[in-house]
Amino acid sequence: MTDAQHIDGFILTPAGFIRGVLEHQEGRIRRIDGTPVFEEEVRHGAQDLPLVLPGFVDLHVHGGGGHDTMEGGAAVAEMARLHARHGTTSLLATTMTAPMDEIRAAMKALSGLCADRGTGMARVLGVHLEGPYINPGKLGAQPDFARAAAMDEVRALHAIAPIRLVTLAPEVPGHLELVTQLREAGFQVQIGHTLGTYEDGVAALARGAGGFTHLFNAMSGLHHREPGMVGAALAHAHYAEVIPDLLHVHPGAIRAALRCIPGLFCVTDSTAAAGMPDGEYRLGRHRVTKCLGGVRLPDGTLAGSTLTMDQALRNLVQRLGLGIEDASRRVSTHAADFLGLENRGRLTPGAWADMVVLDRGLQLQRVVVEGESIDLANA
């Protein structure tokens, strides 16, 4: 048994901040002791004490560090190392719409990583299947290989690597019935890449869909006489993901979603360009260009992001004005809750020792994944 390790600071527990100490051993949190404090003291108190928050949980990751999920081989391992250096302690590797043989090949490369976390990596919890079960009229940056879903096909892919989340367009014939089947089989479902109506969204939620993929992006928008899929989300959703790079979604729209959706959580939708200089990168079958902080197809369409979760946290606090506790929940706890993970996204005895240690400017000082301290030298 390894010796217990201790971290002192302002520690965010499920009950709020304490000023105290966290002890972890063998990959798990063993003890948290301290005195409750208000966030005002956390923001302005002892400057030598760091902030200790739950590690970030990102449910929508296409790439990073020059590597793309669809490449296979060692690409996802390198992607998971890049995001770990930016505070993401667990993630879903996210596929692209592609011919089924390419999706199967990507899943085969993922299967081992889902079973065993490598050194220096974020935990790959499983797969977010974003496509091919989307509306061909709302591809966004997805390649044009959309198709209707079949339960047997999802099960066959799941047998290769664990699928945790499926994005689909509910208006595609047969997909409403599939939502029910997927939920009964234990898969979580998000609505996305959709031209569906408000009524389609409400029907999908009633059948068990849990949330929305990159809210506002690649879905029918809100109009006061045709509320669209955005209207269904704002009126009825408990969970939805949003990309807070402040390029995909205007801060005002994010503020509206924060008022409406209790479990709104952040994702990066990051591509191979995350953590890399400007230039050309792969996104599934596409070649995309990173410049001016964004990633785009040749026609100018936004194609994922360069966002990392530490920057997402800073954007929430420093640009949108959220409190640190609220912002932390939206980059960790809510996503874990959405997937039903009681031992991640929170600092409590028995949970995985996944945490980030930050200074008062919300810059990372340390990242711990399942008890392993991550080398931040190249972050």
From TrEMBL:
Record's keyword terms, sorted: Carbohydrate metabolism, Hydrolase, Metal-binding
EC number(s) recorded for this UniProt protein: 3.5.1.25
Highest taxon of source: Bacteria
Protein name: N-acetylglucosamine-6-phosphate deacetylase
Database matches in PANTHER family: N-ACETYLGLUCOSAMINE-6-PHOSPHATE DEACETYLASE
Keyword S-adenosyl-L-methionine tagged: no
Domain Amidohydrolase-related, residue spans: 51-372
Any GO MF annotation of the entry: N-acetylglucosamine-6-phosphate deacetylase activity
Family affiliation: Belongs to the metallo-dependent hydrolases superfamily. NagA family.
Protein species of origin: Roseateles terrae
